[in-house]
Amino acid sequence: MTPQPPPTASASEGAVGIETHGVDTIPEPDRTGRPRDVVTILIGSNLALGVVIFGWLPVSFGLGFWAAASSMVAGTVLGTLLVAPLALVSWRTGTNLSTSSGGHFGVRGRLVGSAIGLLLSLGYAALTLWTGGAAVVGPLHRLLGLPSGAVSYTVVYTLLAVLTVFAAIFGYQLLTRMTRWLAIGMSVLMLTGVLAYADQFTTSPIVDSYLLGDFWTTWALSTVAAGLSGPMAFITLLGDYTRYVSPRSHSSGRVVLGAAGGMMLGLLIPQLFGTFTAFASGADEDYVGSLVAAAPLWFLLPLLINGMFGTVGNAGILIYSMGLDLDAIVPRLSRLQATALVSVVSTVLVFLGYFVWDAQNAVTAFVLLLTAVGTPWAVITLIGFVRCGGRYDPDALQVFNRRARGGIYWYRGGWSIAATAAWAVGSGVGLLSVDTALYRGPLLSFTGGIDLSFVLAAATTAVAYLLFTRGSRQPMPEDAARGTPEARAAARPRNSAATTGT
Q1: What is the number of domains present in the chain?
Q2: Of the candidates 499, 423, 428, which has an alpha carbon nearest to the alpha carbon of residue 461?
Q3: pLDDT tens per residue, range 51-77
Q4: Residue 381 contacts by C-beta under 8 Å, 6 or more apart in sequence?
Q5: How many CA atoms lie within 13 A of 249 on its CB side?
Q6: What is the pLDDT of residues 273-319, one digit of tens each?
Q7: DSSP per position, 181-216
Q8: Domain with 36 in it: what CATH number?
Q9: 227 lies in some domain
């Protein structure tokens, strides 16, 4: 399709107000987003300590600087190749990715994507608030002598949660504008941070031994946990913003390049900064505490700024996405109600992370397990997108949100048995081959102890889905005029071998 001139500015581009859209289809006049907006959102929202801390994970695993950096680059590139094309799905449908996946999983089966997206965003939002709170309390303690105990953390966590939910409730327009400023401000802050810690930097391993006993298995763990997990966090979130980009105004190539470039820069800049500062500050067990302790006095204020504004930007994006996913799961909830509810749950997880859990083990296990079940969903959604040529029936995708029945994506009771079964098979293989400090899958004995959960889950899902849908066809928009796949199949003579939908 040849790109057309951008549409005239609508009300959605004017004064920032509370967003009225949930997971409904965005009307064409409101689809005023641009691919460069996706880039700034992905960069600006990720230059926060909740993303920076993933650069510390390889250091805590026992890797040296170059091994840590290479594992993150390899994982980020691999994950981006899979995830960036998902930007095209919501660009075509005008709704978020989990709802869009109903075209392949069924209008009820798309709850699989909603649940995965909700859990991914929930965990990452809690992590962002946890690290941001430490980056606020620590500098205030050094600068002003304020207490650094449980009371201070409770107050700061609560304040950050309130500011975050405020940003998430206002939604797309506020988050877009805020992340434009964050992309510039936080980039300058991190460049300044390189200068602040440069004289303390070393490339030698800080931890005496490899977490998994040898170099290559530990490097593979870092590739998945610190590198690949970054792009995988966007498998449902990416469509929250590309749904505002109109196919009438912008080409598919620009959308994919914007998503890929935004993810690569938005993840590698903060994560490599985290690796650099982890080695400079000697952060073996506690990243944020070591970062604050080793910071020159003049850099404490920039750290405090990142802890406040970077956290609100990153967590705001995540809680906004959570609100959409919960709205998709429970249609009777408004987006505002869903957003408020998930913000409370994420805040509770923050307090558990501070008072109860071992941070490193909890974070590592979380990202690996969610990657194992999220990858199969992404693979099926991408295969389905290719098979239908990017053509969807937006009205039929909204059947569940209207609490109705039928439509070309109804399949069997609202579920595609083939897609759901392929997802279950792929997720099972992924979970059986994952390697964390808390859980080791039995298939590791067949992979030489190397965590290949991402590769095995993706390959198994692709084979299973193509096998399960062999001989069937993807429902297309023109089918709506002729009835559902089931109705057409029932109308055929009994000896007909043709099938439609699975």
Answers
A1: 1
A2: 423
A3: 998 999 999 999 999 999 999 999 999
A4: 86, 89, 97, 100, 101, 104, 113
A5: 20
A6: 999 999 999 998 889 899 999 999 999 999 999 999 999 999 899 89
A7: HHHHHHHHHHHHHHHHHGGG---S-SSSS-TTSSHH
A8: 1.10.4160.10
A9: yes
